[in-house]
Specification:
Structural class: mainly beta
Order of helices and strands: HEEEEEEEEEEEEEEEEEEEHEEE
Strand content: 35-45%
Number of helices: 2
CATH class: Mainly Beta
Radius of gyration: 19 Å
Bound molecules: 6-O-phosphono-beta-D-tagatofuranose
Number of strands: 22
CATH topology: Beta-galactosidase, Chain A, domain 5
C-alpha cells in the first residue's frame, strides 16, 4: 500500500486485521487500539503509555484524568506511566523531568502479534531517542504489553553500555475505583513503608483505607496487592515481578488542586498502586545485563455482600 503519513505506514506494517490498528488520538498522538475476545486497550506511542484496559463486560480497569495533557512535552495523567530511569525527582538535577524521560518520549514499534492468551505489542526506546541534555548512558528498553483476560505490562531494561547502569523505575498504574472512601488495599499487612509526606518509616497494620493524601513507598515486598472495591463489586489484583517495592498514592483534595492536569474532585475515583524499583529497591545492572519490571493486572469477581 502507498502511504503518505505515519499512521498509514504503521497500519501497513503492523496492524492485525480485526484486532490491532493505529489511529491519531488525543493531541494528535499516535495511538494503538487493541480489541480482542478478552478485552480492549489503547496505548500511546508517546511514553509507551497504556492509557486504557477494559475486559469485556467490565468497567474500565485503568483511570484517566479528564484534564490530562496529550502533548509531546508532557506526561499523560492516568493509565500506566512508565517512570524510568528515575522514580520521582532526578537524584541530583532538579531541572530534569519528574519520573524520568521515558514517559515524555515517543517510542518505536518493535512488534505486534496475536498470542493464544491475547494481543502482544512491543515498543522500544534507546538513548538515541533522547535529547542530549537528558542522555546519561547507553540503554535499550522495551515495553511488552499483552492484552488478554489480564493485562501484562513488562519493562525490559538492557544495559548496552560498557559501565554499570543505576536506575529506579515505576509502572505508575492508575486504577479506576468507585470511591476512594470505600475501597481497601490488601497485601501489605506488616510491611515497612516510607511515608513520603513526613519522611518517617512506619509499619502497615492490616488493610489500607483512605481518608487523606496518601503517598507511601512499601519496602521489601513482592506480594500482589488487591483493591477491594465494594462499590463496583470487584477486586482488582496487581501482581508483579522484578520489584521489591510498591507505591500507594492518592493525592486527595489539596494536591489535586495543585495539579493542572488533574481535576479537583477526581481523586475520589482513582488510586495508584505502583509496581516499582524505588528507594532501597533501586537497581544496578552490569553491561549486557537485563532487568524486567512487570505488572500483571486483573479482576476478581466480588461476591455481592
Ligand atoms: O508515585 C507517587 C508520586 O511520586 C507522588 O508523589 C506524585 O508526585 C505522583 O507520583 C505523580 O507525579 P507526577 O510527576 O506524575 O505528577
Amino acid at each position: 500500500m502507498s502511504c503518505d503519513n505515519a499512521i498509514c505506514k504503521f497500519n501497513d506494517l503492523y496492524s492485525i486485521p480485526g484486532e490491532l490498528f493505529f489511529k491519531e488520538g488525543n493531541g494528535g498522538l499516535t495511538t494503538v487500539c487493541i480489541n480482542n475476545k478478552y478485552a480492549s486497550a489503547e496505548i500511546s506511542l508517546h511514553g509507551a503509555h497504556v492509557m486504557s484496559y477494559t475486559p469485556k463486560g467490565e468497567k474500565p480497569v485503568l483511570w484517566m484524568s479528564g484534564s490530562s495533557y496529550f502533548q509531546p512535552d508532557k506526561p499523560i495523567r492516568g493509565g500506566i506511566p512508565v517512570c524510568w530511569p528515575w522514580f520521582g525527582g532526578h537524584p541530583s538535577d532538579k531541572n530534569k523531568p519528574s519520573h524520568g524521560f521515558a514517559r515524555i518520549t515517543d517510542w518505536h514499534i518493535a512488534e505486534t502479534d496475536t498470542k493464544p492468551n491475547g494481543t502482544l505489542l512491543i515498543l522500544r526506546l534507546t538513548e538515541k531517542d533522547i535529547p542530549a541534555n537528558l542522555r546519561e548512558f547507553p540503554f535499550e528498553i522495551k515495553l511488552e504489553v499483552l492484552v488478554g483476560s489480564e493485562l501484562h505490562v513488562g519493562l525490559a531494561i538492557v544495559n548496552t553500555g560498557k559501565e554499570k547502569m543505576s536506575f529506579s523505575a515505576a509502572l505508575h498504574t492508575y486504577l479506576n475505583i468507585s470511591d476512594i472512601a470505600s475501597v481497601a488495599v490488601e497485601g501489605l499487612d506488616n510491611c515497612k513503608y516510607l511515608d513520603t509526606l513526613d519522611h518517617i518509616f512506619k509499619v502497615q497494620k492490616g488493610i489500607i483505607t483512605f481518608n487523606a493524601e496518601t503517598d507511601r513507598v512499601y519496602l521489601n515486598t513482592q506480594t500482589a496487592c488487591i483493591i477491594d472495591d465494594p462499590g463496583f463489586s470487584r477486586r482488582i489484583k496487581i501482581a508483579k515481578s522484578g520489584s521489591n517495592s510498591t507505591v500507594v498514592w492518592n493525592p486527595w483534595i489539596e494536591k489535586s488542586k495543585r495539579m493542572p492536569d488533574f481535576g479537583d474532585e477526581e481523586y475520589h475515583t482513582m488510586l495508584c498502586i505502583e509496581t516499582t524499583n524505588a528507594e532501597n529497591d533501586a537497581r544496578v545492572i552490569a553491561p549486557a545485563e537485563r532487568h524486567i519490571l512487570k505488572a500483571i493486572i486483573g479482576l476478581e469477581k466480588k461476591e455481592r455482600g
